[in-house]
Amino acid sequence: MNDEVLSPATAAALEWPSLLALVSELAASDLGRERIAALAPYAGDADLAAARRRYEEADRLATEGRLVPSFEQPLGELLERLETGRPPLTGGDLVRLAALLRATGSAAKRVRAADPPCSELGEIVAELPDLSELVREVDARLDRRGDVRDDASNELVALRRRIRGVRDQLYRDLTGFVSEQSDHLGEDTIPMRGGRLMVMLDSGARGRVQGLTHGRSGSGKSFYFEPLGVVEQNNTLQQATEDEEAERARILNELLAAARDHLDAIHQHAELLAELDLLEASRAFAELSGGRLADVAPRGELVLVRARHPLLDPRLSDLRRRALGQPGHAGDVVPLDLTLGDDSRALVVTGPNAGGKTVALKTVGLLTVAAQCALPVPAAKGSRLPQVAHLVATVGDEQDLLTDRSTFSGRLLRLEEAWKAAGPDSLILLDELGSGTDPEEGSALATALVEALVARQSLAVITTHLTQVAAAALELDGASCAAMEFDPAGGEPTFHLLPGPPGGSEALALARRLGLAEEWLDRAESLLGSGHRELQRLLTEVESLRGELAAEKERVRVEADDAEKLRRRLADEQQALAEERKNVGKKLRAQLDAFRRETLDKLRDEVEAMRGEMKEGRKKGVAAKAVGRLFEAAPEIEEVAPEPQGELEEGATVHHRGLGWEGRLVKLDRGRAEVDVRGKTFRCKADELIPVAGSASKPKQAKRKVTVDTADDGAPVELMLIGKRVEPALNELDDYLDRALLGSRPEVRVVHGHGSGALRDAVREHLRHHPAVANHRPGKRNEGGDGATVVTLRG
């Protein structure tokens, strides 16, 4: 927290941590959430301007997609473990680290390619070290679960080949042994125990066959038995397996060492990710709240247009439920319009209890802090918020029992903080000023403080129930009053802030709304005296007139806005039509000129061709063919085809889909049609025609209807994976399932073969967790048996 601008007490009074919690909930990583939680107002103009440019650049880049993917597992703890080595990183951790570097590398690439260039983000990525080689090493040596790939090194490939060879020979030898010694064996299986392949020897046959015993089975009826003839082979298999594990450990340690060598560079990438995550979370907050970056106001000015408090805005109720555990206010919120400037730098707000004075004060303070952190604020265009050197807010009870501080003494100490901070670059927000003590002394203290704030040219919003303070503000140059509107007819506050004379506290009206005893309230009203009642009557009249003026002003504003919107829309439409007319005319003229020149050349050739065909005795269709060849390249004018009206019937008016002419359908026979178009007969396919409204009179003969069938071009019903390695096969399987879903296939078949069973097991394990798969089963005999898997898709 930047205590110079915003003290912890002021931050708590404005509920600043709660706003940060809302924005943090929208972050994609723990790094972004930490960056948001640490946000503090920028003290320097240049720093704030740079942060605002970063937001605008990220907002422009995000139209092409997110810059930061979601990271469900924490990255901060991963970086700490990489630095300390406690506990050591695993292969899965390296895969997560590569995902971080891949995300920042991709984002940096987009920043560098941006047009127009991103000056602020570009400066950050310009100094970003290139770690693409480290990412490639991790991708090449580890699979997506973090296990070392079988082809991660030549040595590992050779060891895997050796292990497979020894294991296959062992299986063959032990299979033969099982066949020969079946009388002495308790089971026909060939289990592996302690990395060695063996058989199950019946307990009664112990000592009759040469070999090594490795313990009893779970039932106690047989022994794990290693025949003497395979001991050496098992030794070889065990040694090769240990060598393989050692090679995998060596590869993983190499990758960990490479990551530690680039520790500083990795931290730079993490910083970039945190910054981008902050910017994207801020952008998401703006979309949810309808907010934007407020303009930076010049010194001594503050303007809010239709501003809403984030902890009350109903659009953010779901976000508040996720971030704060409760949705809070869900009803409509009356937006706040407020202006402070040279003529009125200090505003004293009066009005009824529970009428919205404190909410207005908090809204001003909270949105000012957010804007000075380069966060978007829920306010309309035209809002301008200043960059302040000090912001002091006193809201609520300042009592502290641990330091023996009473409510009023605590409030006085906070008011002293406001007195000391007052100046041209300060914003002072004081709630219920002058309350908590004798009204006369409280009014004197409050009035003196208001005079000091005005004299020191501070921006200030002050709420009070003391009419003496409001009256003093009316007499001060640079100060003004406003009141929270109260509806006398309904006896309810409207929560509108209206500039003008002070309003009453309406304490008795609130008491009556709450259902307090009438006898008590009647007696209290009688004690106020006729002067107070006359004041209340005058205030009510002023309130009523103010309401009428505000309603009329709003009506005029709405009508002016509507007229301006209509004027702009008509101007835009006229401009668009003029441009379209110009472009279409130019295009048609060019096409017609080209067609005219080409047709003249073709016409000469067609005349000669027709003469030749006529001389050879071919007369039928010669003219029609020539016309077709001449007009096949004619320019087309795009027209919107009419909507089909009913079905094709002889005698009806029809429209040709491609050529655009209309005519009367004369004949319909087996998908072919004859159409009369202005006295000439045209023949075409029936499915090229569209029936239109206003058909001509129909002949009395029977109607013929045309039905056009369509075919489904979905994904193939079978995917062949035989001979593929596990990782590429699973990637291909994911793509295939996506295509099958788009093609609405209910069931597909995946052929993986028998082999060693590794590909089959990997495919079925992958299908078991795939969100698109309802269930799967091995193929039946006519479906490929256990060498295939039949998959039923969801939906």
Task: Give the helix/strand class.
Answer: alpha/beta
**Widest sheet: strand order?**
11-12-13-9-14-15
CA distance, first residue to last residue: 52 Å
**Unreliable residue stretches:** 398-406, 696-713
- How confident overall, as mean pLDDT? 83
The amount of beta strand, in percent, is 15-25%
Count of DSSP H/I helices: 21
Strand and helix map with partners:
Blueprint: H1 8-13, H2 16-24, H3 30-37, H4 45-61, H5 76-84, H6 91-112, H7 119-126, H8 132-141, H9 154-180, E1 192-193, E2 196-197, E3 199-202, E4 211-216, E5 222-227, H10 231-261, H11 263-289, E6 295-296, E7 302-307, H12 317-324, E8 336-340, E9 344-350, H13 357-372, E10 384-385, E11 390-394, H14 407-421, E12 426-430, H15 439-455, E13 459-463, H16 467-475, E14 478-487, E15 492-499, H17 507-513, H18 518-615, H19 622-631, E16 653-656, E17 662-669, E18 672-677, E19 680-685, E20 689-691, E21 718-720, H20 726-742, E22 747-751, H21 758-769, E23 773-778, E24 788-793
Parallel strand pairs: 6-10, 9-13, 9-14, 11-12, 12-13, 21-22
Antiparallel strand pairs: 1-2, 3-5, 4-5, 7-8, 14-15, 16-17, 16-20, 17-18, 18-19, 22-24, 23-24
Helix pairs in contact: 2-3, 2-12, 3-11, 4-11, 6-8, 6-11, 8-10, 9-10, 15-16, 18-19, 20-21
